[in-house]
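re the bet — no i am not wrong, look at it urself. input seq straight from the record:
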Amino acid sequence: MMQTLPEISIIIPVYKVEKYLQPCLESISSQTFTGWECILVDDGSPDNSGAICEEYAARDSRFKVIHRKNGGVSAARNDGLEVCRGKYISFIDPDDIAHPLMMERLKELIESHDADVAQVGFELWFKSFRRKKALVDSVVELERGKVAQELLYGRRLPCYVWNKLFRREVIDTHFPEGMVFEDMYVMSQWVSNIRKMVISPEILYSYRQRCGSIVNSNYAENRLEYLKSVFRLAYSLRALEPVYVSEDVVYKCIWKGVICAGKNIARYVDEAVIRVDAIWKVSQLSRNIYIPSAKKIGLKTWWRIHLLHSNPKAFARMMRFVYFFSSHKYKRINNQFD
């Protein structure tokens, strides 16, 4: 008897998440759309994560398990891409939760709008509260040029891959191994294969905020890598869609990224030597980039750029002082999962 191919392939990289993995896999099992396969890539996890994957595969044949030596999130996702068979591809992180309707709605959105990618809203999931990110007010269609533009604006179309569903044909570039913020890289490459994208405000994904996550570890170093990823994204999309991604759009994106990186390093890195050194590196990385007028990028951003370049220590002190009295900082940090 001929085996029916799954319509959706869900790829989940798994590493040291035994505490959170079962709820994630239960959320996949509970999907109202049943025509899926889930590729669990055990990335050499030293805890019980691999065994949990095998338990689910033994219980439900739609779960497939790959065990590999540790190579990072990108390498694990790439292994999943090599074996997945679905017409559509989704990426879920192993400590997050997919709403039961997520796959059904994403598939409906792609097919009803004749789109190549669909996206839903999500919530930032802290221990004692959640912050909803609908991103749009109603369902929105975007042509490729607008997709490129919105990726740089970041408001309606963040570069995350985990709240989206992709037609298989869109994904022609693998994730870059050894790189943090790998989602930003692949989105900049895949956009060339996107004819149309559809975005829904439905909150169908819970993004768990963990202090031990890759993004929140080695914070200063990761912010520098984030900044380099912003540069790559901006220049790549400018080359792809020069009409929609003007120089003004590019430089607004770049300087927003520069100030964001410096500001967050100042606010979240407690070790003074590491903090000042990292902000100095942000200053150096951005020193030779064109600075638009204050009228184009805003007086506050313009002033912060010049302070960052002329006196990185003063920039760090100012950013840290303003945030020191913020209850939001402590609420966010104290409510992250372990």
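see?? Residues 283 and 310 are 9 Å apart (CA to CA). told u. also Strands lie at 8-14, 36-43, 63-68, 88-91, 97-98, 117-125, 130-133, 140-143, 164-167, 196-208. so pay up
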